[in-house]
Design brief:
Chains A, B: GO terms for molecular function: DNA binding; DNA-binding transcription factor activity. The structure is a homodimer of 251-residue chains. Chain A is mainly alpha-helical. Chain A has helices at 20-32, 43-49, 54-66, 83-86, 89-97, 104-128, 131-150, 155-168, 172-184, 186-192, 198-215, 218-241; strands at 39-40, 70-73, 77-80. In chain A, a hairpin with a 3-residue loop joins β2 (70-73) and β3 (77-80). The N and C termini of chain A lie far apart (50 Å). Chain A binds chain B through residues 55, 58-59, 62-63, 65-67, 84-94, 105-106, 109-110, 112-113, 116-117, 120, 124, 163, 167, 171-177, 179-180, and chain B through 55, 58-59, 62-63, 65-67, 84-94, 105-106, 109-110, 112-113, 116-117, 120-121, 124, 163, 167, 171-177, 179-180. Chain A binds a DNA duplex (30 and 30 nucleotides) through residues 42-44, 47, 52-56, 58-59, 72-78.
Chain lengths: 251, 251
DNA sequence: ATTGTCAAATTGGCCCTACCAATCTGGTGG
DNA sequence: CCACCAGATTGGTAGGGCCAATTTGACAAT
């Protein structure tokens, strides 16, 4: 019963448009150079400033609150939280979704975290993978083969493979983090695989890794993952140097 | 200096009361056994059912949407997302905040993730710590000493120490994850340190770790962290046994 | 019976007004 | 100088209303 399979969609990024109010508030904060502990204008004031209803403001603030970027104090105001201490991973995902470009340090840190989590994760996957995990991995590989053959953008297939491996760790917490991870880097991944040249190598490495995982050779799988990630790092840093299109700079 | 000190507050958990609406919606979903892809009642219906205004419902749904538990489709409805594939770490934090107990598997996975991140993180901290990081670590240690001496609950001091180490990694992404991590486990940590017996040992281990980090001996620091975490795991599993009936040992 | 078409109901997105309770502010009286 | 109180401010919330897009179902044409 796996015919109607979730289909690894190939979409560039998000054409979102969704809640630009959050983006506008973030831009406002950046523009005013507000920092931790400072108070935002009242909801009524923000509503007037952005020419929206107070409800819309409240929803946007609720979003910012759940990612721990602000704190609402009843009868007092809305205060910025220490983003470097309190911020959640979703705050980064949110920013990425809104088109705010990550700075170089953040991307480097992202790469490092990816290495830590995925190398260890791949080892766990090699130890614990169940048949359904291998099935998902195989499906991802198959989709990857087709994509490489067709010359389409490999980004979605790459993400799906890594997510499948993360799922095979049987650790839902790790899976959640890796998931957020690929969500927030999807635009960059898209550009990374923009020319079809990197896809074949990535696919080969994926296949080798899958073999090791399937064979239960956790150490080998982890080593392959480390090598795989390392082989991409140089390109990532190169990508960092370039200016990505699509970002409405909010510096 | 110490008067207006960031104050490592010692509070049991959350006195929250805040957004029980989210909790009620979650309970509703659980009660109806709604699963991935299914549609929730319309906002108007939910508002009527819970006897609140539609605004309140919309804010709650906005929160659930930002942690990727639901998806709002304009002019169509609100749909549950695949929580096992899409859920964010903040979804767990949210649940913990709302008092929903984590199941045994989730706690085991949390422990495992903690090991992966903090052992690697401590190594990085040993390599990169700056003076301000050491200062924060020292402050945490000092607070810990006072707390141990006073016989107060050590949970907040424990968290602060680990967060200080995470900060010393100079990797904000890792820091965010570890932060979420301690947020969502704070209640359990509170119980863990309920009797004052574990605090002195934890404090000793913290001090040793801090020495290694200060000396720049990353490998030793990582090893100490691994041992530190391992020494607590047994108690965590014991805690699990008490709170949750029946249990298959985590492999 | 099948298909095409269109209007009504439904739904999320959003605005607006109003009220509450707690907080904050400033001025007044002791 | 301090204690105290009233008015302004603020987040929390209810409820009504309008819009645009989708969904639905009845009706008509083939």
């Amino acid at each position: 019963m796996s015919p109607a399979h979730p289909a690894i969609s190939v979409r560039p990024a998000r054409e979102d448009e969704r809640s630009d109010l959050v983006a506008r508030i973030l831009a406002f904060v950046a523009d005013r150079r507000l920092t931790s502990g400072e108070r935002l204008p009242s909801e009524r004031e923000l509503a007037e400033r952005f020419e929206v209803g107070r409800n819309a403001i409240r929803e946007a603030i609720a979003v910012l609150e759940t990612v721990r970027m602000v704190e609402r104090r009843p009868n007092s105001g809305i205060y910025l939280r220490a983003m470097d201490r309190d911020g959640s991973l979703d705050a980064l995902v949110l920013r990425a979704d809104l088109g705010v470009p990550l700075d170089e340090a953040e991307v480097s840190e992202l790469i490092e975290m990816r290495r830590i989590l995925e190398v260890q994760g791949t080892e766990l996957a090699g130890l614990r993978r169940k048949d359904e995990d291998l099935a998902r991995i195989d499906a991802a590989l198959e989709a990857g083969r087709r994509t490489v053959a067709a010359g389409d953008n490999f980004a979605a297939c790459d993400a799906e493979f890594h997510l499948a491996v993360a799922a095979a760790t049987r650790n839902s917490v790790l899976r959640r983090v890796v998931n957020s991870f690929y969500l927030l880097s999807r635009t960059r991944r898209w550009h990374y695989f923009a020319d079809g040249r990197r896809a074949p190598e990535a696919q080969r490495q994926h296949e080798a890794m899958a073999d090791a995982i399937r064979a239960g050779d956790a150490t080998a799988a982890a080593g392959l993952m480390r090598a795989h990630l390392q082989s991409t790092e140089a390109y990532w840093h190169e990508l960092l140097q370039q200016r990505l299109p699509g970002g409405k700079a909010a510096s």
